[in-house]
Amino acid sequence: MSLKFYRIKLQILSFLYSIKLFLSKVKLRIGIALGLVKSIIIMPYIGFGNEKEVYLLGRVIRNRDVGSATKDDSSFKNFKKMYKRFMTWKIPNVRIRASFEGKYWTTLTDEEGYFEFQIKDHSFPKTDYSWKVFELELIDQVLTIQGEVKSETNVFVPTKLVEYGIISDVDDTIVPTGATRFWEMVKTTFLGNAYSRIPFSGVAAFYQALAKGTDGKENNPLFYVSSSPWNLYDFLLELLVVHQIPKGPLMLRDLGLSREQFIAGSHFDHKLNQVEKIFRLIPDISFILIGDSGQYDPEIYLEVIKDFPGRVKRIYIRHVAEKRKEEVLQIQATMLQLGVQMLLVSDTVEAAEDALAQGWIREVDVQYIIEEKRESLSNHH
């Protein structure tokens, strides 16, 4: 792309983005004036960090009361909830205050209603308990009758007992979504819910085993990195809870028009940036990386190995894309030269047996994984 064409593209994007922001502001003002915006919520996302710095973020939006899913929800009800998640009314340029142990920090929401805190002026000493609870509060008045707008968010700071961390992809790694087949993915996302989206057999027990490590105390942190939009945050968190997969920070992305791109951020760049952010903010431990062969996880993890030598213990890749096998095997060979083994696995049990052989999980937990797989298979027959 020539420099001249690139500049023209940026000018067009900047113009379109300014129109988008203008329409958003007009919509919000009219919505408030007509009483369509009755209440506002702070949607907090799970944060993480170390004893010197923590990172937390969230979004301020109109409360559309999506509510929790049930097993009996119809496809139409699921679609309505998903529509509400995507048709957000964001609240830009308002102040959010975070507080923890008597200290306060303030930041502004951006044009899309997102806010983030990178707190470096406080110490978060390692204790035997890894989760810190931060209070969040909206300072500015947006509505005439607003009341207090508060929320809490959990922030993970590793304990002294952490053995290693785990970073996992979501789509086609934890749960089948057909991420490589667009229409199948759309149907699965918009018509299903946390109960109807069934993870691959053995995943919950395997992730529990990794969280427990060798001492059985669930101190090892799990991070979930996905190219899904932030609009799906509560849905994906609910999916983890419903299927008893250990909770952890979910690193998603903002989709849609931005100043620089028609669709904000590429899949590759987003995932690489988020994984490397985790490596930088949790500097003292090594990681097991889990993904699938369908959407460039091997390529992304290879970059991580190069950028953070000695920090990756093992990579488990669920083999879902036969057409990519040759490419993936070449990456596997390159990783081996760099001292990291990437295993292509057909199911969760294979990965668990390797983790057991390496002395990273307990044998009793592998038995749970095998039982979970057996139970899952019998339920499908």
TrEMBL record:
User: What residues does the Phosphatidate phosphatase APP1 catalytic domain cover?
Assistant: 164-319
Q: What organism does this protein naturally occur in?
A: Belliella baltica (strain DSM 15883 / CIP 108006 / LMG 21964 / BA134)
**What is the name listed in the Swiss-Prot or TrEMBL entry for this protein?**
Phosphatidate phosphatase APP1 catalytic domain-containing protein
Q: Please give one Gene Ontology molecular function term for this protein.
A: phosphatidate phosphatase activity
InterPro entries in alphabetical order:
APP1_cat, Mg2+_PAP
